[in-house]
Amino acid sequence: MPARLRAYEYRRMESEHDITGLLLAWRAGDGEALDRLFPLVYHELRRIAHRQLGRERAGHTLGTTALVHETYLKLIDQTRVQWADRAHFFAVAARAMRRILIDYARRHRAAKRGGAAARVELDDATFLADERAHTLIAVDQALTRLSGLDERLVRVVECRFFGGLTEEETAEALGVTPRTVRRDWVKAKGWLYHALRE
Questions:
Q1: Pairing with 181, which of 11, 121, 143, 170 sits 20 to 30 Å away (CA)?
Q2: Which residues contact 194 (CB under 8 A, 6 or more apart)?
Q3: What is the overall mean pLDDT for the chain?
Q4: Which of 113, 158, 114, 106 is nearest to 132 (CA)?
């Protein structure tokens, strides 16, 4: 392994250890741990948010920075969560981003139904924005139904689709093997495909 790659891997492992340590300190009541945590998770949260917003319509009113900040505020408000480690934190972050994006899609649809300004013109961008909001809400409803059948499949979708986590990161977050994640991801996509066609 080249020296540069070894140094990067060491820094990544050190960062993961720091994040886990700070989460455990925060869980134990150390309020200052939260202040030290944000700079360590910010870049990763931005990466996840940027990837997620890349799937959204052009001109989405929620930018990457705003999504990161809203997600972080939701996370620090999670007083009942017993943070286990870095992977657990990012899995919960993926779920929080899902909720935020679904809420925005619902507000967008409500505004289009007359809840906001009366805009009448119809163009491709407006149609695509409406279609994207409709699809996102349909996926959320399908995931809610799927959670009654297999909660882990939903968690895999949240980590992979909403959180942009890799198979390995998802496996770490859920405490399963990457092979299980791969199998669950295929099952979840197949189930969602059929559910959304209905």
A1: 11
A2: none
A3: 76
A4: 106
Total residue count of the chain as it appears in this document: 198
Burial of 86 (0-12, 13-18, 19+ CB in 10 A): buried
**pLDDT tens by residue, 28-62:** 878 788 788 888 888 888 887 877 776 665 555 67
Residue with tokens 């017993």: 82
The closest alpha carbon to 70, from 46, 86, 54, 39, belongs to 46
Scan for tokens 């997620």, then name that residue.
52
Q: For residue 173, which of 183, 190, 160 has the smallest C-alpha distance?
A: 160
Spans of all domains in the chain: 3-197
Distance CA 100, CA 119 (A): 25
